[in-house]
Amino acid sequence: MQNATLFYIDGRWIEPAEPRRIPVVNPSTELAFADVSIGSSADVDRAVAAARRAFDGFSDTTVAARIALLRRILAGFDARRDELARIVSMEMGAPLAFAMSAQVASGPNHINEMIRVLESFQFDEQQGRTLVAKEPIGVCALITPWNWPINQVICKVAPALAAGCTMVLKPSEIAPLSAIIMAEIFHEAGVPAGVFNLVNGDGPGVGAALAAHPEVDMVSITGSTRAGIQVAKAAADTVKRVAQELGGKSPNIFLPDAEFKRCTDLGVARCFSNSGQSCSAATRLLVPADRHDEIASHARAAAATYKVGLPDVEGTVLGPLVNAAQFDKVQRLIKTGIAEGATLITGGPGRPEGLDRGYFVRPTIFGNVRPNMAIAREEIFGPVLVIMPYGSEDEAVAIANDTPYGLSAYVQGADLARARRVARRIRAGNVHINYPPIDRRAPFGGYKQSGNGREWGAWGLNEFLEVKAIMGYAA
After folding, report:
1. What region holds the Aldehyde dehydrogenase domain (predicted)?
2. Among candidates 204, 197, 243, 203, which has minimal Cα distance to 220?
3. What is the reported pTM?
């Protein structure tokens, strides 16, 4: 990859201000397979200046021109799908089939939704003599994570472009190569110079400089709650908008009339997908106490179907965790769960049999988990499911809400009216009743320490817009 050690600033691939590099490690082999450059505040200054220069011209483009630009980006994605899937699989460990069907596909899916939104979006609305205008907020800093590297970049870049904003992207230094390919796609699609800029780097060196920069009007970050707090503090002095999509510890409530076998199979999938490395993963399974053992048996059988292995081997469902730090964290929490007295239903510490290298984890399920246990409270970010018994609907809701997070939640039950009532009581930004299909028109974001702001569809577009009231606009 010829541009791996360069930054994309003002429409060109350029050398960093300071020559510093770090390796990109394949989590399946624990070996480096590429290097990327690490940026500094000087690189941030150059990128922000380019975005500022480009803002006046790009913010004045027509909606039709922005739709055409998004369509050209779609075509670029289609031409490089295989390459993107291979790179995502290598940099963060997703099985190749999953990388293609979910990781890579998420980008075009969100672009298509943004095109649909733009085709009917009302940027101006007249209210009597007043015109309410929605205008691009300005220069945006986009800070994205490693777990869904394409999805999270596009969930920010597409609405920023649609709004008429200019931007500087800092992808995760753990999985940065897919973002470099996307920058190449944007360039080939004709994104004007300075509108999109990419500076690789870490949080202290690049993320903090972007968040504090006086010429940045908005920061959109997806990451840990810790990182979100640091960005918000850095942004506070310049009173810029901060949109945060942060951590989660999502409950999945089985009501007494749920179809337990089917719901358990799908519940395990909602936890284990992407090796459990999703902020909205359904990691806390809340079940009627008198059905706990039955559901635990179903969960054990479901977990046995999840083949852990090398991402490029056919039939692999779960790849490795992303790096040594994440592997060590998950191993520590699994051991903590055992020490705290939870029932180990399947899995446990250590690598799966036959995998002596790579950050592979045994799919693990705990039963009889109490709300005060660490595995019930901390975001594990691995294929670890905890089953928590409850005695009444009120207790189930109380357990579900007993968390500093509030990103996603799940409710299963045959009585839809009851499931709706329970869904209303859960303090989370997204609640899924009976495992519905994904709806990219819906707002995605959280309550409490899961962040603020919303992504996807028109909700995501509005995050990048300022609202202006022009009174006396009409005679």
Report:
1. 13-470
2. 243
3. 0.97
